[in-house]
Task: inverse folding
């Protein structure tokens, strides 16, 4: 039975070198399946209820597409940087992984900051809060759920960066990084749907 | 297979601490079993009060409000806190043994799943202690009754307690999927896997998708109740029917989640006690998969009277009726497993074969209910109550008791008393038929569901309800006898052999009763379906090993899952009572524990070959 | 030998006894249909029952045969029976036959489901009665005749009626077992339902709420009264007349106007928060299930919550004296 050596080039994909690693990756895909159902249900509720304004404002009135476009650019770029991090991991370059993950976190912070600003603006300008209408409730729960996922991802990846410096790139830390990047891609895909279904279709609708 | 370099030390816990920190699938299985049986007893008591109230017209055993709480708690507790956890107990204990693994894929998550389920169950039942109201809108919690017309914190206990407990269930489902996919012993292809594992696999996939939908629905109820949301508030433009869709997209797979494991249990017990292999294994696998798949396509047959229109109603009606086909295939396969076999009527087998007529009766009323235009008559009457109790008691409960008697010697090293077991069986069958058969009639002549009483003078109602109540009392006695059986058996010495039924076919019967910590000295080599039977027929006294004797890697226990669950419990209470410090504090505990778990590497420990009993077999 | 047979017969006999306990042969509710909708639905139910009984008989015969014939006998302990993997012919049979059986049940199901829906949606020129479910009573509005009433809905015999169902609060469900299946009464303007029913014989038909709606869900009974056409017209005319206030009922009427009118209209065409009480003296029940007499009525007004948990109507025992309540009762009993 061979043992993995972090510094050698004998193993390309550290994350799959152990049974624990393989389990974690498969388990995470299953978890993403559950998350797809969760977001799918929230999307269904939003699509079903978004035309009910209860006398309040509509998406067309309040959405600012320029800001949302910047947020999208930030998040999509952060997804790309997370790919670069995994590629660095496959070249066993610890510093590269840390660098690209760090940039991912910074871009995500930018996204989150803009989203918080957006929500605060809606509440102050239009009294657009959870209670206003079915549209507002489904908007905040769906987009807020996504934002919460982004926040959790930021904390998670930051902690991972710290761990990498402490423990290095091993068969234990590699699956964690891989799984975190899977998570990050998923969050990104969900955002693409939010951008299209909530903001674009909301603005036009 | 590479594994981590570091060698850790075993953390030694004893007594209660051992059970609180354990990550061993066998101990966690026992925890699930006993927690489930505990909640089963509570739900059973609730049922007895329901039937006592309904024994006579205009009875005053409980108030209308209390009755609505009882039916809500009975359904919710039985389905979420009793049936599924008991089944998880068997999944946890038996699956790794049947596939030749040393544990499940994620032992830590396994423990976390148990404790979140447990504390969720406590939260759900907290109303009994706080006096602030219990959930009262039915286990189906239809809006807007559950959201705007249910004052007090009762329905918050429901939405938050079930949310917490659901997280546990989801984690468990995820665990079993990965375990079954990745951790089968060498030689065990999917089509050589015991059918119990197959049904557990499909059930776990259903759980992952169905419970996620429920989680969102419960979140929506919480938002409407606690934060002024408008999901289901029709005055503001929301739609109460949305809740029904979301709930039943969970709710229909849920009933298959409950019954598929029973199908799996039957597929183990009947072949063992017929001395014959399962008839039609391949079609059993396909039938299970089709049932799982179709189970997601039929949810709106619970909503035929909502007003969705004839197109929707007929589509769902036909899809629902189709599920009868794979189910029927299974019934015939079990009968033909017994055919030309040598049947031995142990208690386990009595429950297993007793399933067949009872569940089939439930199944045929299910087909009748699927026919939309007839369902307009049946919906929300006692006919439906009769149907689902026939499939759940005649199905899942029979399966649970069969599993209990079958696997008790493996799990606890002693065999349950057969005489007491057989008395329990006949009492249960008699009592259950007495309770529920009559309810088909009651429903069709006009008795709706969820009624806390009924008027005097309606022809036949008084007598039929009384008979039903007496049957329920008999069922109660049967369950008490099973509990007594468990207690007196646990007081006996451990003397069960590895293969107490002598005709065991699957690998759990190849190792001692109960198994050692590490399950298998050496990972076994699987040479066919019914791997242990194959070895026995070849004259071997042990499984052929797939590896030499070597150090066995075991995970350490951890207190973190217990603490995380308490954190979530506190946060749940914080949400319910709008108490910020509890919410933040509880979530804070959770986050800290998660960070600790990630930062602190615990590589477990090794059991050295010298510690393993016996010398093992040369690979 | 005898012992063995006793062991088998006793449980079997016991089973039969308890099956027979179900046979209190009272044909009521959906089993005693009095209109075309209920009749067609019962036909479908009986058809499915026959097919399902055939299935049950087949399964039970096979099952009991297997269980009795293949018990382990003495001396078999060291013989292993043949391990049969499967049988494709058998498996095909019990796949194809059930599909066929489903087909012959599905076809009439689809037909009747569409038929009932078409009848319900075809409201042009039909008699439509608006039904609003409220916790815990039923309001009936006749748009053409201009009548609003509660708890008892009158229809002419032999004519199709379409009920327009909605709710003022939670989801209720409207069911008259002898006339046909139920449909839900939903809150919200987007989820209004239409239910087609017809009574072919005159009589008083029990109605029930069939969706858990709160504490008194069990007591949310109503009645449908089917009258011959001329009697129905007489009822309409009667309802459109308001009862005269006499010297006897003057005091009661005055008290009623002060204390009760805010919630209970007595104008035949007006809706109100509580049940419209025009014609109350002719109603069989108070609150849908309590015998309508002076004593019960006084108790009801004193504290309705004692008799029907969770109702919206508040108690008046602290607001009105016993004499005042008696006066109101007298007045109400004059509302013919």
Result:
């Amino acid at each position: 039975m061979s043992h993995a050596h972090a510094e050698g080039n004998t193993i390309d994909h550290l994350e799959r070198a152990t049974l624990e690693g393989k389990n974690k990756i498969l388990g995470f895909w299953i978890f993403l399946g559950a998350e797809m159902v969760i977001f799918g249900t929230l999307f269904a509720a939003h699509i079903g209820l978004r035309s009910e304004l209860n006398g309040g404002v509509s998406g067309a009135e309040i959405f600012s597409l320029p800001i949302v476009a910047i947020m999208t650019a930030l998040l999509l770029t952060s997804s790309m940087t997370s790919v670069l991090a995994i590629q660095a991991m496959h070249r066993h370059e610890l510093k590269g992984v840390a660098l690209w993950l760090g940039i991912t976190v910074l871009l995500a912070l930018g996204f989150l900051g803009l989203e918080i600003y957006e929500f605060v603006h809606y509440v102050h300008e239009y009294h657009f809060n959870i209670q206003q209408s079915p549209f507002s409730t489904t908007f905040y729960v769906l987009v807020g759920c996504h934002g919460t996922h982004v926040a959790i991802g930021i904390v998670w990846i930051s902690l991972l960066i710290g761990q990498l410096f402490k423990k290095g790139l091993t068969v234990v830390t590699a699956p964690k990084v891989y799984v975190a990047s899977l998570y990050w891609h998923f969050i990104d895909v969900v955002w693409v749907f939010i951008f299209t279904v909530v903001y674009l279709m909301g603005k036009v609708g | 297979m590479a594994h981590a370099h570091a060698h850790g030390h075993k953390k030694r816990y004893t007594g209660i601490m051992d059970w609180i920190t354990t990550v061993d699938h066998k101990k966690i299985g026992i925890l699930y079993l006993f927690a489930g049986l505990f909640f089963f007893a509570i739900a059973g008591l609730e049922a007895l009060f329901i039937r006592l109230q309904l024994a006579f017209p205009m009875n005053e055993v409980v108030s209308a409000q209390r009755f609505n709480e009882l039916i809500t708690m009975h359904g919710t507790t039985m389905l979420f806190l009793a049936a599924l956890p008991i089944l998880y107990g068997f999944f946890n204990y038996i699956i790794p043994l049947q596939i030749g693994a040393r544990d499940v894929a994620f032992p830590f998550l396994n423990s976390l799943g148990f404790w979140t389920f447990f504390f969720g169950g406590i939260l759900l039942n907290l109303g009994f202690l706080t006096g602030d109201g219990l959930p009262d809108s039915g286990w189906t919690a239809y809006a807007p009754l559950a959201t705007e017309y249910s004052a007090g914190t009762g329905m918050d206990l429901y939405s938050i307690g079930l949310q917490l407990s659901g997280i546990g269930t989801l984690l468990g489902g995820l665990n079993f999927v990965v375990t079954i996919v990745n951790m089968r012993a060498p030689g065990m292809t999917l089509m050589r896997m015991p059918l119990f594992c197959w049904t557990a696999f499909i059930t776990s996939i259903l759980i992952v998708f169905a419970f996620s939908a429920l989680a969102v629905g419960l979140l929506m109820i919480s938002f409407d109740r606690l934060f002024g949301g408008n999901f289901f508030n029709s005055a503001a433009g929301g739609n109460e029917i949305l809740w029904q869709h979301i709930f039943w997209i969970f709710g229909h797979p849920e009933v298959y989640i409950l019954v598929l494991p029973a199908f799996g249990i039957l597929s183990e017990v009947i072949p063992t006690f017929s001395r014959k292999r399962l008839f039609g294994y391949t079609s059993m696998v396909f039938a299970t998969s089709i049932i799982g798949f179709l189970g997601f396509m039929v949810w709106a047959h619970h909503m035929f009277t909502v007003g969705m229109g004839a197109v929707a109603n007929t589509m769902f009606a036909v899809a629902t009726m189709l599920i009868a086909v794979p189910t029927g295939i299974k019934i015939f396969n079990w009968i033909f497993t017994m055919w030309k076999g040598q049947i031995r009527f142990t208690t386990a087998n009595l429950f297993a074969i007793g399933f067949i007529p009872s569940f089939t009766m439930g199944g045929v009323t299910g087909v009748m209910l699927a026919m939309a235009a007839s369902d307009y008559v049946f919906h929300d009457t006692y006919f439906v109550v009769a149907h689902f109790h026939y499939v759940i008691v005649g199905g899942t409960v029979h399966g649970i008791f069969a599993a209990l008697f079958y696997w008790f010697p493996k799990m606890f090293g002693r065999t349950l008393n057969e005489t007491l077991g057989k008395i329990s069986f006949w009492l249960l069958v008699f009592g259950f038929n007495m309770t529920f058969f009559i309810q088909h009639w009651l429903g069709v002549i006009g008795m709706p569901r969820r009624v806390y009483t009924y008027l005097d003078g309606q022809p036949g109602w008084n007598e039929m309800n009384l008979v039903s109540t007496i049957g329920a009392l008999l069922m109660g006695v049967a369950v008490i006898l099973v509990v007594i059986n468990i207690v007196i058996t646990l007081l006996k010495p451990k003397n069960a052999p590895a293969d107490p039924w002598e005709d065991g076919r699957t690998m759990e019967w190849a190792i001692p009763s109960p198994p050692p910590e590490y399950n298998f000295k050496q990972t076994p080599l699987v040479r066919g379906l019914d791997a242990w039977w194959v070895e026995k027929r070849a004259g071997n006294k042990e499984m052929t090993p797939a590896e030499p004797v070597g150090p066995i890697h075991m995970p350490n226990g951890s207190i973190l899952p217990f603490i995380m669950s308490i954190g979530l419990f506190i946060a749940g209470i914080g949400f319910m009572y709008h108490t910020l410090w509890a919410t933040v504090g509880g979530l804070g505990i959770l986050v800290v524990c998660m960070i600790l778990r990630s930062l602190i590497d615990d590589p477990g420990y090794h059991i050295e070959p010298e510690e393993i009993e016996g010398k093992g077999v040369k690979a | 030998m005898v012992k063995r047979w006793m062991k088998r017969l006793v449980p079997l006999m016991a089973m039969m006894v308890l099956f027979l306990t179900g046979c209190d042969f009272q044909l009521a509710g959906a089993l005693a249909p009095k209109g075309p909708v209920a009749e067609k639905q019962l036909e479908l139910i009986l058809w499915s029952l026959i097919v399902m009984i055939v299935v049950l008989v087949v399964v039970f015969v096979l099952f009991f045969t297997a269980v009795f014939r293949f018990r382990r006998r003495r001396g078999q302990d060291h013989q292993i029976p043949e391990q049969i993997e499967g049988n494709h012919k058998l498996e095909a049979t019990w796949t194809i036959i059930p599909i066929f059986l489903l087909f012959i049940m599905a076809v009439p199901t689809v037909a009747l489901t569409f038929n009932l829906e078409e009848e319900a949606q075809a409201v042009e020129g039909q008699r439509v009665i608006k039904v609003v479910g409220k916790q815990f009573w039923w309001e009936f509005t006749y748009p053409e005749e201009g009548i609003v009433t509660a708890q008892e809905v009158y229809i002419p015999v032999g004519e199709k009626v379409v009920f327009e169902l909605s709710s003022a609060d939670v989801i209720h469900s409207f069911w008259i077992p002898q006339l046909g299946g139920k449909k839900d009464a939903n809150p919200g303007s987007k989820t209004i339902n239409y239910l087609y029913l017809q009574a072919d014989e005159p009589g008083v038909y029990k109605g029930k709420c069939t969706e858990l709606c709160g504490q008194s869900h069990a007591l949310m009974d109503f009645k449908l009264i089917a009258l011959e056409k001329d009697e129905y017209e007489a009822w309409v005319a009667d309802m459109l007349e308001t009862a005269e206030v006499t010297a006897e009922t003057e005091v009661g009427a005055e008290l009623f106007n002060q204390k009760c009118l805010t919630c209970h209209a007595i104008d035949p065409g007006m809706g109100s928060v509580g049940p419209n009480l025009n014609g109350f003296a002719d109603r069989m029940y108070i609150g849908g299930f309590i015998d309508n007499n002076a004593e019960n009525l006084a108790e009801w007004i004193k504290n309705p919550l004692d008799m029907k948990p969770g109702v919206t109507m508040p108690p008046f025992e602290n607001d009105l004296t016993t004499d005042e309540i008696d006066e109101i009762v007298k007045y109400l009993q004059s509302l013919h």
